[in-house]
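Example 3.2
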Amino acid sequence: MSQVTRPPHAPTEHPKIARGKTGVLLANLGTPDDYSYWPMRRYLNEFLSDKRVIDYPAWKWQPLLQLIILTKRPFSSGKAYESIWDKENGESPLMVITKEQTTKIAETLTERHSDHVMVDFCMRYGNPSTISKVREMVAAGCERILFFPLYPQYAGATTATANDQFFRALMKEKWQPAARTVSAYFDHPAYIEALAQSVEASYAMQPERPELLVVSYHGMPKRYLMEGDPYHCQCQKTTRLLKERLGWDDTELRTTFQSQFGPEDWLQPYTVEEVARVAAEEGKKSIAVIAPAFSADCIETLEEINEEIKESFEHAGGEHFLYIPCLNADQAHVGALCDIIDENLGGWVS
């Protein structure tokens, strides 16, 4: 429990300081505040200006981004967001789900550690910002902060840029808390178990078993792999461990990559092309798709997979398309995340 007091032996005019808590700060990619043009443009500008995401020289990339891409893309992206927007809550699904995850994780950690742990979330792009949430935690008396990017597989364009922003936030603090970051959990047994349970539960609800499970991960330029990014290898291992846990053979699932952008070659096979191929060339009429790289449903799953990729499969002759939702605030997922958090809190809380 944090206490707002003056340091021992300090003079009476010394400001009172809150101390004593441990913070757990969850982080996800981000979301626009609204799907209209200017909120979309602000969000896309921040995202696409990140050198971890687009590493072209600024002199080459920024004119293209500011003069061409950001005059058109906010309209098309806005329509995509509008199609999935949670009208009841007035927020994107990613925001709604992240809030629910945070609440459930906070409840579980409070049961385990009383009120010694403060749990909150931030977004790498958009609101609430990483800097604002680190400031709140320090002001609330967090002497230690565990920063947890909610990306099971590490990538420079996701985990690394989230960590970068966390460290920038610490640079603004007069009295920095002790800090730790959670590493990728792509092979953590509790995460794999939660994935497997979600597949089993979804399959159990179907009148007929899908002929193939497509395990679709967010893509990235192949060049990043060749430069040393471990993302591709970690995705492949997640698929292998999921297959082994389910007790399946290699013919029952395959790894693909989605969301390619720009002129470079990206990790392949591309999900949108592969689902069409298995329908047209392999004659499969029924498939399921799961997206293990996303901890919460978002534009890439609800719009891209469940609309664009589904449409590609059906246009090629497919008949039954099942999207298996992200783990979201499922209790097995929350439990897995809390276990990972506790492992990383070792020595900080009892």
